[in-house]
Amino acid sequence: MLASLQLFCAFGMTAALFVFPTITGYAVDEILPNASRHHEFAYWVALTLVAFGIREGLNGSRIFINNHFEQKVIYDIRSDLYGKIQLLPLNWFDTRRTGDIMTRVVEDVTNMERVLIDGIEQGIIAVLQVVGIGIYLYILNPVVAGWATLPIPLLAIGAWIYSTKGRDRYRNQREATSDMNSLLHDNIAGIRQIKSYAAEAVEHARFNQASEHLRQATLRMMRWWAYYSPGMTFVKMTGSVLVLAFGGYEVMTGNLELGEFITFMLFLSLFYEPIDRLNSLNQMILSGRSAADRVFEILDAEEELHATDGEIFQGRSQGSVEFKNVSFAYQDQSTLDDILITAEPGQTIALVGTTGAGKTTVLSLLARFYEKDSGKILLDGTDISTLNKNSLRNQLAYVTQEPFLFNGTVRENLELAKRGASDEEIWKALTAANGDTFVRELPNQLETNVGERGVKLSGGEKQRLSIARALLKDAPILLLDEATASVDSETERQIQSALDHLMENRTAFVIAHRLSTIQNAHRIYVLEKGKVIEQGTHDQLLAENGKYAELCRRSFLAEQG
């Protein structure tokens, strides 16, 4: 509907263009030389004014309609793009920079939209004007019109050369913009590290380097335009000179009336004006195409398996989990090799081992953040590789080593686990997580903004909110990845007490280095280089005096120290 209205306005505006040159030529030949018809002059002047009013009224309507259409299209494309990003697998994000993704969503969508909306609309108006006036010029005087249109093939060839040669320059400019935005995003996110290492000057130099790269890429693009635009204008103006020369000759020889010649010259300016716009559109199209390539690179990416389909897990899981001969390689590097892990409902399973042993990968495969290469992972006897991922993840609550809080209120961060949770439910979860006391002391309690990544809170406070969020979700299976790491002993005691509440009547997979966290686990699995090398209870593994016993001695010494 909106597109049809825009087309109607375009036809109306084009038709209105014919009024002023036609009336001017008619007045010069028929009214001004004839004193008996001078009374008609005011009528024709008024008519031209009405025509201009109609044209600009249609133009205003076109702009209004176009703005609504444009913003709707931008909204839809951005929504589709963000929705697609949400469905992409984690390994897609592992190889891409956050700043680059943001540039594609914010800037590239806008540039692409300019081609889809402004480019098409302006192109249609320009083509209508060129074709309509071009035909009328041949009706007025075919000979002079032939000279007027003589430069058109050269203009078309120039546009084709510019399009074919300039596309890479525009893409390089978009990539340079993305590089600079990525560096800026990283530096803002890491500003504390930059300041702590007094690296402001070094990072400023890096930013200047990225900015210089963008400047050079932009200059290469504009240098090409600096040759193209004046060159095309010169070719176009040769048409005006030819019309002046041969049309003037026709007037001097009596083959063309002066009014007709003036009409022709006025129409000629209207004929070439949209050609200038088409040249500018060519630049816009090249920029939009390079942006569209980057946007569709995301839209065409392969979605996460079972992100929207797959079998729906019915009801609440009992908490039975089994890894059967599971292997996994990350970027061609073996991470897990033929592991066997079993968790009965309500059991706490501890995963221990040195850094890089594959502990976190076990949890990632259970949550299907990554897909195993071989073997099976069973949830209550159901192979999770057949399950819809949202359905699977609704059975899990994940507490990571580095808690992540969004830039919002305490309530908004907790409601991530349960939309529309009541105040009573939220305070109950906070109490169980030993977080109610500090939240009540915040300026606005639940409505206090925690800042980006929870910067306004301490590490222990952020972790307790993370645990409260997991409690609020009330999932039957818990994944705890170093939840008490990097905190002082008092905070660790509070967090461990919260975790004890969290693990009650739930199956829990716990990764920890500290002996106090894992010694009460029902079963402990020791991993090394992606293999399970020992398993058993704390006492059994100590009696074996193997790798676990060695890790315990190290942990004991570290905790005593």
Structure notes:
The chain folds into two domains: 2-167 and 221-299, ABC transporter type 1, transmembrane domain (ABC transporter transmembrane region fold, Up-down Bundle), CATH 1.20.1560.10; 321-560, P-loop containing nucleotide triphosphate hydrolases (Rossmann fold, 3-Layer(aba) Sandwich), CATH 3.40.50.300. The chain is elongated and about 120 Å long. The longest helix is centred in the middle third of the chain and has 53 residues, at 200-252. The model is unreliable at 556-561 (pLDDT under 50). Helix content is 64%, strand content 11%. A hairpin with a 2-residue loop joins strand 1 and strand 2 (333-343). The chain is of the alpha/beta class and 561 residues long. The protein has helices at residues 2-17, 19-31, 41-86, 90-94, 98-140, 142-148, 152-189, 191-196, 200-252, 258-299, 359-366, 389-393, 410-414, 423-432, 436-440, 459-473, 489-503, 515-518, 538-544, 547-560, and strands at 321-330, 333-343, 348-352, 374-379, 382-383, 396-399, 477-481, 507-511, 523-528, 531-536. It has a six-stranded mixed β-sheet with strand order 6-7-8-3-9-10, with helices on both faces. It is built from 20 helices and ten strands.
